[in-house]
Amino acid sequence: MESLTPFANIETRRMGLRGVIHLASEVVAQYWPMRTFVHHNPLHNLEYLPFKETVIRGKQFLGGNGYLPSEFYRHYLRSGRIQSRHMETAVAPLARDEYTTIGLHRVSHGEVLCACLAEGLCTPVEEPLDARWEHDPYYQLDVAIANRLEAVLPSPDVDERVRGLVSCAQASLGRLMTLSHWCDQVLGSAIVDRINHELIKWCGGFLDEGHATWAMPEREQGLYLAWKALAAHEWSPCGISDSKRKIASLPNYPEDAVLESLDALGIPEDLRQDYLSLQLTALPGWTGFIKWRSEKCDYEWQQAYPVEAVEYLAIRLWYVRELVQQTCQQELGIAGTYQSVTDYMRQRSKEYFLRRERAASRLPAIYAEEVDRLQHQRAQGWDKLYERYQLDVAPRQLRVARHGAAKQLRSLALALQLDPATLMTTAPDKLACLVEWMKAFPESDHGPVWLKAFESGYQEQLLGALARSPAAQPPLNVEPGLERLHSQTVFCMDVRSEPFRRHLELSGANGTYGFAGFFAAFIRYRAWGKEHDTEQFPVIMRAKNEVREIPRSYHDPVVSKHTARTRMVYAGHTLLHDLKENVVTPYVMAESVGWFYGFPIIGKTFLPTLHGRLTSWLQRLFVPSIATTLTVDKLAPTETAEMLMAEQQTTIRQALQECTSLRSSQITLALVEALRQWALSDKSAPDAALLSVATPSKLSGETLNRFVTTLRQRYAITQRSASRKKERITRTGLTLDEQILTVGTALRMMGLTRQFARLVLFCAHGSTSENNPFESALDCGACGGNEGKPNARLLAMMANNQKVRERLAKTGLVIPSDTHFLAGQVDTTTDEVQLFDLEDAPPAHCADIARLIHDLNEASRRTSLERCSRFPDLTEPLPIPESIAHVHRRSADWSQVRPEWGLSSNASLVIGRRDLTKGVDLGGRVFLQSYDYREDPGGHLLEVLMIGPQVVAQWINMEHYFSTVDNEAYGSGSKIYHNVVGRVGIMSGPWSDLRLGLAQQTVMNGDVPYHEPMRLLSVIEAPREWIEKLIARHEVLRQFYHNEWVHLVVLEPEEGILYQYRPTGEWAKVDSGSGF
Amino acid sequence: MINSMLTPWLVVAVPLLGALLGVAVWSQPEKLKAWSVTVTLGSLLAVIVSFLTLTGSTEGLLFVLLLPLAASVSLLGQPVHQDHRLAWVGTLVFLGMGLGILTLPSPIGAIALTLLLGLITFVLYWHHDPFWGPSWVGIGTYGLGTLCAGIAAMTNSAIPSLLACMILLPLIPFHYGYVAALTRLPGSLSPFTVLLLPAIGLHKLAALIPAISEFETLPVIVLALSGALYGAIKALAQSRVRLLLAYGSLSFFSLLWWFVATSRNVSPQSAVFLGSLSLVTAGLLLAWQVIRTRYGDDVDPRAISGLAAQMPQFAVLISLLALAAMGLPPFGVFAGFMGLLFALPMTLSIAPFVVAIAWLAASWYILDLVQGLLFGHKRLELRYEDVRQSEFAALLIVVIIMFALGLAPTNLFEGAPRISGTGAIMEPVSWNR
User: Fold this and answer.
1) Same domain as A572, residue A529
2) How many interchain CB pairs under 8 A, A with B?
3) Cα distance between residue A520 and residue A791, in whole Å
4) pLDDT tens figures, A792-809
5) Do the Cβ atoms of A370 and B292 come within 8 Å?
6) Closest chain A residue by Cα to residue B131
7) What is the DSSP letter of A328?
8) Does A353 fall in a domain?
């Protein structure tokens, strides 16, 4: 019992630490690998906090700004995008009922705040200590005002400043600042950078997913043990002496190593969570990916090379502890612990102050030089230098501060349209009051006010348009027109579908619907000839079924040719890749075949469209395309067994060829089957039947025995493996009930339950782009960053199934017999629509299909024209043919950083009938989810929409928001410097954190935002009562609306009135003329 | 003959008279600056007009042309501020005295040199900062220089002359005066003296070096090579821009000392090298003045970043100056250096390594400085304003001169041959690039 106690204690400590790390990693968002790029809120885990507070936490841990720089908002104000009245409304809650006077003019507190916002009066400007500009026409006036302020503005005492600084630093240490940050901030060391550099190296090597030619060894052991095994071979990493011994003496459990390092650094228990958060957020990209991997236990790379945040921290903290110790000892002669550092700040505060000012480049150069000298010579002149600073620099700083305040006052007078000279007739205490008001409203507080004003403008415009819609007026038009539509097309709810839908509706008698692009089909899909599955559903959901693409039966003769040619192409690619990556061959390669690359380079650069067409023609020529279908229905048990048997027989046939010298003519089906049976059985020796069939092939009993062992061990021909495969095969396809449920749910959710047209098209979306590591970001987010084609095909096939229709009819959803469902996909970069499985369409529908194709083409042309009008790089409007050519060129151009540029500018979500928005140009900014509350008596479908599509829309919206407001912290910077790393993400340049979010070119147009960063506005057409119930039921909805992540407006159907849901849970009637 | 006797006096009189007349607009800084610039341009015109009648030493007449230009750009690059008035007038006075030293015959030139060094000593003392210790050593060095120049003027002795040369064209351990002048002299005086003093030093050395024996040049070579290394290492360690430029240029001046002492000759290529080096240092000082004007006299360079996007004109000009200062073609430093290198016999010694180290170090510290200023994040608390017209003109002129010095043939700057006391004509060194 006694021996168990320490063990239990250690285990308890480890468990406790894991809990702390779990909480500490909240601030880090998961990082999805780039092949399935998922738009998400980078601060998603903090959505339980109000938006404003989360922004502060983001700044604290990730260093990111939560709002645009004020100069952008001022630009919007000047351009009219932000109205003055919106700004005044937004500032009203902050304005106090106080007044002062400038000369004879009465000025309110609110007026001053508005002037601060509009004119940037509170922008922190570093006034030079020795100003040499005398060009300013107000220079003399500023000097005179500054003199008047001398008596009323308090002169800050340097000692007091130092005391404040010390207490602030003590409070921040551990919470906002690590010990390594402290060393960098005070001693000018670069510990954080050095550690990041090391960690990037280890993470990049370990987390590689087949990109590296030479993979990192020892990865099977996990990150920590692999590092421990390899880092010990490095010579003095980061200049840490005796590193080999130190690393070898580290514990084998990462939890123990973390605890040991935290103890060595002396981090108090109550600070550990924040301290670990700070360590994790030093490289939020890599840690985000580690977090994602550690939560995806079934991910093949995670299974092969496991990694967890605790391992990352164990490594990082070892570097921290060693380097902090070394730096503190060398520079200050103190131990590198929390306690020693706080003692140092308190006891040697003057030295601390001067060192800190020096490291921040705030000292005049001559003082900086003296600090360097004292530092270098370990001299004792700190107090003397500090006294001199007090005598020399502090008065200059005071003078400058007064001059700055005078400038601010003069700018305020001008902003209020007053003569600045009146300031000379204003009493100094009134001037001081004005200065105080401005000081109390620093620019860092302007963001929330600006954002509110910014959002109000857009909301007013959208809600006004919706309120004016005839469909919004009660009583609702219960019976739609009697004329049957030519077609109905269901698009993804994505904002990019909105212009296409509008144009398709204008092209003819076509109705459109919006629905999440995975069309309620939660499937894992494997395309024909591919080795990996794609997950065709939102990342917040789970797969239910698997669907495979298989060739249509009439294509059997072509399939083998297709497969063989595909293999040849693959082999060619592999060979070329291997030659390129080999140590020696590239030297020969460059000379021998390097010139060959000149053709594609010239083609891609100068004739991208033609090059694209030519290569795809060549591809088709060499690898003939085949028509395919999907495995929609579940297989019967006998079919499953047959399929499994066929698969096993093929494997055994290959194994016989590889492991024995038998020719294929000698391998008979009987032999293969006998071997299969034996491998699956428990028998250890061959039976007589097997020996008899093996006789012609001249295989001895011993050979057969060995071969069967090989089959079991290497080729997994065992009963257990067979069961697993069988289980997997049974997941393929959907049962009839599942099909009925999927089709019925989808149609009811989108409100398509009556008046079916002869053709209903489920139109997914995908994209085409070149040289774009994040091409999946252009694909369908609802399909897990993949094309939605499989989902559309699957739903159409299921909806065409007569059995499904019959059963649906029994539930009240009657689909006319002449209605045929089609699948298609729109390419969002070229605006072209491709239709699938046309061979399944009844001949009677040929004319309808031809008409639909015509209308789709027309809509495609008009959409291209509209998109071209939005590209800022096109200064003049293009005619339609040129527009089409232009969008095609963009999609094929490998130097194009914005092949599509459609998702940026998203701003709101409308869940309601299309009639509400029909005919309104929403500018491609609105997610449109079709929903008819009359088809959903209990509000159950609405519940799914609010916690499904709305969450996806919010993630997309927030990804764009944060990538725009601070692209360096939350976005991924310029595309120009992007480099793919480990096939999982991108780095900026050759060495950086995994970059989060969207590229600068995606959200910015040059230096100004292209995307208008606003929080999502959800407009829902449904009774408020239902929505209240749903909010009460779902935590995620409460977080959205109460914490102001999403603005909710409800169109009360029976009243035709818009209501805003306030964070307090109350409803406020929206005045559609002036917004909120 | 009368004409050629009077011409130098005319050249000297223009700036000195200009300085005197400038007092009339003393209370109007803007006008005073404009007047001072006009005077330097008048001075340049006077030099050009009398170019063919001026006699040159072996290093040619390049400095006589460059001095008014340097004075002009030094003045143009300063902001209009009443504190700078004395420096502007001082620049004109220094220009007059400098032209006098370069063109007037002995002993007037030697007396002028004594006066100039004395004046600089006084100005340094006037601007002395007790907090900065090395300034005393600088004042002392120029005091010694004044003494040496005075003795040399009276006795024609070689040692005091050589010492004066070492102080003017800085060589360790007499470099403190130069460092102090570069860092402590106010306004336009600092960039102007970067050319003025070394040019006078080389001019004096040209007359002196043939008289020094090979044995006597050995310590000079040792000092020169040590100085090149010392200057490079000190420059690498500096955090203040003016000190960095002072030590950087000291390193290159030491290389020039090595060339002169090894070849025991001052060629026109030496003048091109010195003129280019001094001018580019002056250009970088003016570029730094642009920063000081905006962000304070004693601003820490690490506090400034992201100028490339915010001040594009400035960024282009300082980048060109940096390229010139690092000794890249087609600028004058490269051309002068190559001219000197090809004139030397190829021997295996430690000198080429020292030269290489000094060169590589220069590429490091200059690039580091410029990179730090131009790139990095835009700092929201800084007010960015690109160069104004006069600043732009000053920097552009320096770049153009650097370009011209890199491409123009050396013999273009050779004036009328000086007739020595014995009647022998000094043989001009031919163009050998």
Assistant:
1) no
2) 70
3) 8
4) 999 999 999 999 999 999
5) no
6) A366
7) I
8) no
